[in-house]
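User: Structure with pyridoxal-5'-phosphate, C-alpha coordinates only please.
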Amino acid sequence: MITRSSALLQRPDRETQPQPLPIQARWQTQLARAIRDPRELCRRLGLDEAWWPGAEAGHALFEVRVPEAYLARIRPGDPSDPLLRQVLPLAEEAVTMAGYVADPLAEVEHAPAPGLIHKYAGRVLLIASPACAVNCRYCFRRHFPYEENAPSRAQWESTLDYLRGDPSLHEAILSGGDPLAASDRQLAWLVERLEGISHLKRLRIHTRLPVVIPDRIDDALLGWLGATRLQKVMVLHINHANEIDEAVMAACRRLSAAGVTLLNQSVLLRGVNDDVGTLCTLSERLFEAGILPYYLHVLDPVAGAAHFDVVDEEARKLVAGLREVLPGFLMPRLVREIPGEASKTPL
Ligand SMILES: *Cc1c(COP(=O)(O)O)cnc(C)c1O
Ligand code: SF4
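Assistant:
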Protein backbone atom coordinates (compact mmCIF):
# COMPACT_ATOMS: atom_id res chain seq x y z
CA MET A 1 0.00 0.00 0.00
CA ILE A 2 2.56 2.53 1.10
CA THR A 3 5.08 1.40 -1.48
CA ARG A 4 2.65 1.63 -4.33
CA SER A 5 1.43 5.08 -3.49
CA SER A 6 4.96 6.31 -2.77
CA ALA A 7 5.48 6.23 -6.50
CA LEU A 8 3.16 9.21 -6.67
CA LEU A 9 5.65 11.23 -4.69
CA GLN A 10 8.12 11.01 -7.53
CA ARG A 11 5.77 12.68 -9.98
CA PRO A 12 7.44 15.97 -10.84
CA ASP A 13 4.09 17.54 -11.68
CA ARG A 14 2.31 16.71 -8.47
CA GLU A 15 2.26 20.31 -7.23
CA THR A 16 0.95 21.82 -10.42
CA GLN A 17 -1.47 19.07 -11.46
CA PRO A 18 -3.04 17.29 -8.54
CA GLN A 19 -4.14 13.94 -9.89
CA PRO A 20 -7.56 12.51 -9.24
CA LEU A 21 -6.85 9.14 -7.67
CA PRO A 22 -9.79 6.87 -8.25
CA ILE A 23 -8.12 3.65 -7.08
CA GLN A 24 -6.93 4.75 -3.70
CA ALA A 25 -8.84 6.28 -0.88
CA ARG A 26 -8.05 9.89 -0.09
CA TRP A 27 -6.45 8.98 3.19
CA GLN A 28 -3.97 6.65 1.53
CA THR A 29 -2.83 9.41 -0.77
CA GLN A 30 -2.42 11.72 2.20
CA LEU A 31 -0.45 9.05 4.01
CA ALA A 32 1.82 8.54 1.01
CA ARG A 33 2.39 12.27 0.67
CA ALA A 34 3.23 12.89 4.32
CA ILE A 35 6.37 14.95 4.88
CA ARG A 36 9.37 12.66 5.40
CA ASP A 37 12.20 15.12 4.98
CA PRO A 38 13.37 16.99 8.10
CA ARG A 39 14.47 20.06 6.13
CA GLU A 40 11.18 20.24 4.31
CA LEU A 41 9.38 20.13 7.66
CA CYS A 42 11.47 23.07 8.90
CA ARG A 43 11.01 25.02 5.70
CA ARG A 44 7.26 24.51 5.56
CA LEU A 45 6.94 25.81 9.11
CA GLY A 46 9.23 28.78 8.67
CA LEU A 47 11.92 27.47 11.04
CA ASP A 48 15.37 28.80 10.20
CA GLU A 49 18.39 26.73 9.24
CA ALA A 50 19.60 26.52 12.83
CA TRP A 51 17.00 23.75 13.30
CA TRP A 52 18.27 21.61 10.43
CA PRO A 53 21.22 19.75 12.00
CA GLY A 54 19.16 18.67 15.00
CA ALA A 55 16.24 17.67 12.82
CA GLU A 56 18.53 15.59 10.63
CA ALA A 57 20.27 13.96 13.58
CA GLY A 58 16.94 12.92 15.11
CA HIS A 59 15.59 11.83 11.75
CA ALA A 60 18.57 9.46 11.36
CA LEU A 61 17.41 7.69 14.55
CA PHE A 62 13.66 7.66 13.82
CA GLU A 63 12.41 9.04 10.55
CA VAL A 64 10.24 12.11 10.22
CA ARG A 65 6.64 11.59 9.19
CA VAL A 66 4.02 14.35 9.28
CA PRO A 67 0.85 14.36 7.13
CA GLU A 68 -0.34 17.66 5.70
CA ALA A 69 -3.59 17.58 7.64
CA TYR A 70 -1.59 17.64 10.88
CA LEU A 71 0.92 20.18 9.61
CA ALA A 72 -1.96 22.57 8.94
CA ARG A 73 -2.69 22.73 12.69
CA ILE A 74 0.86 23.86 13.57
CA ARG A 75 1.55 27.59 13.94
CA PRO A 76 4.26 28.53 11.44
CA GLY A 77 7.37 30.18 12.82
CA ASP A 78 6.79 28.97 16.38
CA PRO A 79 9.37 26.38 17.49
CA SER A 80 7.52 25.87 20.76
CA ASP A 81 4.19 24.98 19.12
CA PRO A 82 2.86 21.99 21.11
CA LEU A 83 2.04 20.01 17.97
CA LEU A 84 5.37 20.76 16.34
CA ARG A 85 7.25 19.56 19.41
CA GLN A 86 5.63 16.16 19.00
CA VAL A 87 6.93 15.67 15.46
CA LEU A 88 10.11 17.73 15.01
CA PRO A 89 13.30 15.70 15.58
CA LEU A 90 15.84 17.38 17.85
CA ALA A 91 19.56 16.89 18.52
CA GLU A 92 18.63 15.82 22.09
CA GLU A 93 17.34 12.52 20.73
CA ALA A 94 20.93 11.36 20.23
CA VAL A 95 21.78 11.92 23.90
CA THR A 96 22.16 8.67 25.85
CA MET A 97 20.53 8.74 29.28
CA ALA A 98 20.78 6.14 32.01
CA GLY A 99 17.52 4.19 32.28
CA TYR A 100 16.30 5.09 28.78
CA VAL A 101 16.30 1.94 26.69
CA ALA A 102 15.09 0.57 23.34
CA ASP A 103 12.24 -1.60 24.69
CA PRO A 104 11.15 0.04 27.96
CA LEU A 105 8.04 -2.11 28.25
CA ALA A 106 9.76 -5.45 27.58
CA GLU A 107 7.17 -6.18 24.91
CA VAL A 108 9.47 -8.48 23.01
CA GLU A 109 9.28 -10.93 25.96
CA HIS A 110 5.47 -11.10 25.78
CA ALA A 111 5.00 -12.06 22.16
CA PRO A 112 3.80 -15.69 22.16
CA ALA A 113 2.70 -15.57 18.50
CA PRO A 114 3.54 -13.38 15.50
CA GLY A 115 2.13 -9.87 15.90
CA LEU A 116 0.62 -10.62 19.31
CA ILE A 117 1.41 -9.22 22.76
CA HIS A 118 -0.32 -10.84 25.71
CA LYS A 119 0.41 -9.12 29.02
CA TYR A 120 -2.95 -8.63 30.73
CA ALA A 121 -5.86 -10.87 31.65
CA GLY A 122 -8.78 -11.07 29.26
CA ARG A 123 -7.27 -8.99 26.47
CA VAL A 124 -4.54 -9.27 23.87
CA LEU A 125 -2.88 -6.74 21.67
CA LEU A 126 -2.48 -7.42 17.95
CA ILE A 127 0.07 -5.51 15.88
CA ALA A 128 -2.23 -4.99 12.91
CA SER A 129 0.11 -2.63 11.05
CA PRO A 130 3.78 -1.80 11.42
CA ALA A 131 3.37 1.72 10.05
CA CYS A 132 2.08 4.94 11.55
CA ALA A 133 0.66 7.99 9.84
CA VAL A 134 2.77 10.23 12.03
CA ASN A 135 6.02 9.55 13.82
CA CYS A 136 5.80 10.90 17.35
CA ARG A 137 9.20 11.67 18.77
CA TYR A 138 8.37 10.31 22.24
CA CYS A 139 6.98 7.01 20.93
CA PHE A 140 7.76 4.05 23.16
CA ARG A 141 7.76 1.79 20.11
CA ARG A 142 10.29 3.88 18.18
CA HIS A 143 12.73 0.96 18.34
CA PHE A 144 10.19 -1.87 18.08
CA PRO A 145 11.29 -4.65 15.71
CA TYR A 146 8.28 -4.36 13.45
CA GLU A 147 9.89 -6.43 10.69
CA GLU A 148 9.68 -9.45 13.00
CA ASN A 149 6.08 -8.61 13.91
CA ALA A 150 4.47 -8.02 10.54
CA PRO A 151 2.72 -11.35 10.05
CA SER A 152 1.59 -12.77 6.74
CA ARG A 153 -1.96 -14.13 6.50
CA ALA A 154 -0.69 -17.64 7.21
CA GLN A 155 1.03 -16.34 10.34
CA TRP A 156 -2.14 -14.50 11.31
CA GLU A 157 -3.93 -17.82 11.28
CA SER A 158 -1.54 -19.17 13.90
CA THR A 159 -1.97 -15.98 15.92
CA LEU A 160 -5.74 -16.39 15.67
CA ASP A 161 -5.37 -19.98 16.87
CA TYR A 162 -3.80 -18.59 20.03
CA LEU A 163 -6.93 -16.47 20.56
CA ARG A 164 -9.23 -19.37 19.70
CA GLY A 165 -7.48 -21.55 22.24
CA ASP A 166 -7.88 -19.18 25.18
CA PRO A 167 -11.53 -18.77 26.26
CA SER A 168 -10.51 -16.29 28.97
CA LEU A 169 -9.95 -13.69 26.24
CA HIS A 170 -12.86 -11.28 25.78
CA GLU A 171 -11.20 -8.44 23.99
CA ALA A 172 -8.92 -8.08 20.98
CA ILE A 173 -7.01 -4.82 20.77
CA LEU A 174 -5.78 -3.72 17.39
CA SER A 175 -2.60 -1.76 17.79
CA GLY A 176 0.59 -1.10 15.86
CA GLY A 177 2.22 1.06 14.65
CA ASP A 178 -1.21 2.32 13.84
CA PRO A 179 -3.74 -0.41 12.99
CA LEU A 180 -5.72 1.99 10.80
CA ALA A 181 -2.68 2.38 8.54
CA ALA A 182 -3.62 -1.10 7.27
CA SER A 183 -6.03 -1.28 4.35
CA ASP A 184 -9.74 -1.74 4.96
CA ARG A 185 -9.55 -5.01 3.05
CA GLN A 186 -6.94 -6.34 5.45
CA LEU A 187 -8.78 -5.04 8.52
CA ALA A 188 -12.13 -6.41 7.36
CA TRP A 189 -10.45 -9.81 6.86
CA LEU A 190 -8.97 -9.77 10.34
CA VAL A 191 -12.12 -8.54 12.09
CA GLU A 192 -14.23 -11.15 10.33
CA ARG A 193 -11.97 -13.84 11.80
CA LEU A 194 -12.03 -12.28 15.26
CA GLU A 195 -15.82 -12.20 15.10
CA GLY A 196 -15.80 -15.93 14.53
CA ILE A 197 -14.17 -16.48 17.93
CA SER A 198 -17.20 -16.84 20.14
CA HIS A 199 -15.59 -15.90 23.45
CA LEU A 200 -14.51 -12.50 22.09
CA LYS A 201 -16.93 -9.71 23.01
CA ARG A 202 -15.06 -6.55 22.23
CA LEU A 203 -12.93 -5.07 19.51
CA ARG A 204 -10.72 -2.24 20.66
CA ILE A 205 -8.71 -0.09 18.29
CA HIS A 206 -5.83 2.05 19.49
CA THR A 207 -5.15 4.65 16.86
CA ARG A 208 -3.93 8.15 16.11
CA LEU A 209 -4.99 8.09 12.47
CA PRO A 210 -8.44 9.75 12.87
CA VAL A 211 -6.55 12.61 14.53
CA VAL A 212 -3.71 13.10 12.09
CA ILE A 213 -5.67 12.21 8.91
CA PRO A 214 -9.38 12.58 9.73
CA ASP A 215 -10.30 11.43 6.20
CA ARG A 216 -9.32 7.93 7.38
CA ILE A 217 -12.84 7.67 8.82
CA ASP A 218 -14.43 7.03 5.44
CA ASP A 219 -17.29 4.85 4.22
CA ALA A 220 -15.05 1.84 3.66
CA LEU A 221 -13.90 1.87 7.27
CA LEU A 222 -17.38 2.48 8.65
CA GLY A 223 -18.56 -0.43 6.50
CA TRP A 224 -16.62 -3.17 8.30
CA LEU A 225 -16.61 -1.41 11.64
CA GLY A 226 -20.35 -0.83 11.64
CA ALA A 227 -21.08 -4.40 10.59
CA THR A 228 -19.26 -6.32 13.31
CA ARG A 229 -21.15 -8.06 16.12
CA LEU A 230 -18.32 -7.13 18.51
CA GLN A 231 -18.72 -4.13 20.79
CA LYS A 232 -16.47 -1.40 19.54
CA VAL A 233 -14.13 0.84 21.48
CA MET A 234 -11.70 3.25 19.91
CA VAL A 235 -8.91 4.69 22.02
CA LEU A 236 -7.60 7.79 20.29
CA HIS A 237 -4.28 9.36 21.09
CA ILE A 238 -4.52 13.13 21.48
CA ASN A 239 -2.14 15.19 23.58
CA HIS A 240 -3.28 18.76 23.02
CA ALA A 241 -6.58 20.51 22.28
CA ASN A 242 -5.10 22.07 19.11
CA GLU A 243 -5.08 18.58 17.59
CA ILE A 244 -8.89 18.57 17.56
CA ASP A 245 -10.00 20.64 14.60
CA GLU A 246 -13.36 20.59 12.81
CA ALA A 247 -12.37 17.64 10.62
CA VAL A 248 -11.46 15.58 13.70
CA MET A 249 -14.80 16.54 15.28
CA ALA A 250 -16.62 15.36 12.17
CA ALA A 251 -14.71 12.05 12.11
CA CYS A 252 -15.62 11.48 15.76
CA ARG A 253 -19.29 12.17 15.07
CA ARG A 254 -19.26 9.51 12.34
CA LEU A 255 -17.60 7.00 14.65
CA SER A 256 -20.05 7.69 17.46
CA ALA A 257 -22.95 7.31 15.04
CA ALA A 258 -21.55 3.88 14.08
CA GLY A 259 -21.78 2.78 17.71
CA VAL A 260 -18.12 3.22 18.63
CA THR A 261 -17.29 4.24 22.20
CA LEU A 262 -14.59 6.90 22.01
CA LEU A 263 -11.85 7.20 24.62
CA ASN A 264 -8.58 9.07 24.64
CA GLN A 265 -5.12 8.45 25.96
CA SER A 266 -2.49 11.13 26.22
CA VAL A 267 1.15 11.13 27.13
CA LEU A 268 2.28 13.77 29.60
CA LEU A 269 4.98 15.63 27.69
CA ARG A 270 7.26 18.44 28.76
CA GLY A 271 6.67 21.48 26.61
CA VAL A 272 3.48 20.05 25.09
CA ASN A 273 0.84 19.58 27.77
CA ASP A 274 2.59 19.86 31.15
CA ASP A 275 0.34 22.47 32.72
CA VAL A 276 -3.10 22.40 34.30
CA GLY A 277 -4.68 24.86 31.87
CA THR A 278 -3.58 22.87 28.81
CA LEU A 279 -4.77 19.57 30.26
CA CYS A 280 -8.08 21.12 31.31
CA THR A 281 -8.70 22.56 27.84
CA LEU A 282 -7.79 19.17 26.35
CA SER A 283 -10.39 17.33 28.45
CA GLU A 284 -13.06 19.92 27.65
CA ARG A 285 -12.31 19.76 23.95
CA LEU A 286 -12.28 15.96 23.97
CA PHE A 287 -15.75 15.94 25.44
CA GLU A 288 -16.97 18.37 22.80
CA ALA A 289 -15.83 15.75 20.29
CA GLY A 290 -17.69 12.99 22.15
CA ILE A 291 -14.50 11.46 23.57
CA LEU A 292 -13.90 10.60 27.22
CA PRO A 293 -10.41 10.94 28.72
CA TYR A 294 -9.08 7.50 29.65
CA TYR A 295 -5.36 7.50 30.44
CA LEU A 296 -2.70 10.12 30.97
CA HIS A 297 0.51 8.17 30.64
CA VAL A 298 3.79 9.30 32.07
CA LEU A 299 6.52 8.97 29.51
CA ASP A 300 7.93 5.50 28.97
CA PRO A 301 11.70 5.70 29.27
CA VAL A 302 12.51 5.05 25.64
CA ALA A 303 15.94 6.01 24.36
CA GLY A 304 15.82 9.39 22.58
CA ALA A 305 12.82 10.83 24.43
CA ALA A 306 14.28 11.89 27.79
CA HIS A 307 13.77 15.59 27.03
CA PHE A 308 9.99 15.06 27.19
CA ASP A 309 10.04 13.69 30.73
CA VAL A 310 7.94 15.19 33.52
CA VAL A 311 8.99 13.91 36.95
CA ASP A 312 6.42 11.95 38.99
CA GLU A 313 6.00 14.55 41.71
CA GLU A 314 5.19 17.21 39.15
CA ALA A 315 2.83 14.85 37.31
CA ARG A 316 0.90 14.19 40.53
CA LYS A 317 0.68 17.91 41.26
CA LEU A 318 -0.65 18.60 37.79
CA VAL A 319 -3.34 15.97 38.14
CA ALA A 320 -4.29 17.24 41.61
CA GLY A 321 -4.66 20.72 40.11
CA LEU A 322 -6.71 19.30 37.27
CA ARG A 323 -9.07 17.60 39.71
CA GLU A 324 -9.86 21.00 41.22
CA VAL A 325 -11.18 22.36 37.94
CA LEU A 326 -12.74 19.40 36.09
CA PRO A 327 -15.76 17.18 36.69
CA GLY A 328 -14.73 13.67 37.66
CA PHE A 329 -15.77 12.12 34.36
CA LEU A 330 -13.33 14.37 32.49
CA MET A 331 -10.35 13.25 34.59
CA PRO A 332 -7.85 10.96 32.88
CA ARG A 333 -6.19 8.29 35.04
CA LEU A 334 -2.51 9.06 35.58
CA VAL A 335 -0.64 5.81 34.95
CA ARG A 336 2.68 4.27 34.21
CA GLU A 337 3.40 1.01 32.49
CA ILE A 338 5.75 -1.14 34.51
CA PRO A 339 6.98 -4.32 32.82
CA GLY A 340 5.73 -7.41 34.61
CA GLU A 341 2.72 -5.73 36.29
CA ALA A 342 -0.78 -7.10 35.64
CA SER A 343 -2.15 -3.73 34.53
CA LYS A 344 -1.09 -0.14 34.05
CA THR A 345 -0.02 1.22 37.43
CA PRO A 346 -1.75 4.33 38.86
CA LEU A 347 0.67 6.98 40.16
C1 LIG B 1 -1.93 -1.09 27.64
C2 LIG B 1 -2.08 -2.47 27.15
C3 LIG B 1 -3.33 -3.08 27.11
C4 LIG B 1 -4.59 -2.37 27.50
O1 LIG B 1 -4.64 -2.05 28.85
P1 LIG B 1 -5.98 -1.39 29.44
O2 LIG B 1 -5.63 -1.04 30.83
O3 LIG B 1 -7.06 -2.41 29.31
O4 LIG B 1 -6.27 -0.21 28.59
C5 LIG B 1 -3.39 -4.39 26.70
N1 LIG B 1 -2.29 -5.09 26.34
C6 LIG B 1 -1.07 -4.51 26.35
C7 LIG B 1 0.10 -5.32 25.95
C8 LIG B 1 -0.92 -3.19 26.75
O5 LIG B 1 0.29 -2.63 26.74
S1 SF4 C 1 1.04 7.13 16.38
FE1 SF4 C 1 1.38 6.00 18.30
S2 SF4 C 1 2.61 4.20 17.71
FE2 SF4 C 1 2.73 5.70 16.03
S3 SF4 C 1 4.58 6.93 16.42
FE3 SF4 C 1 2.84 8.02 17.36
S4 SF4 C 1 2.80 7.29 19.47
FE4 SF4 C 1 4.04 5.84 18.30
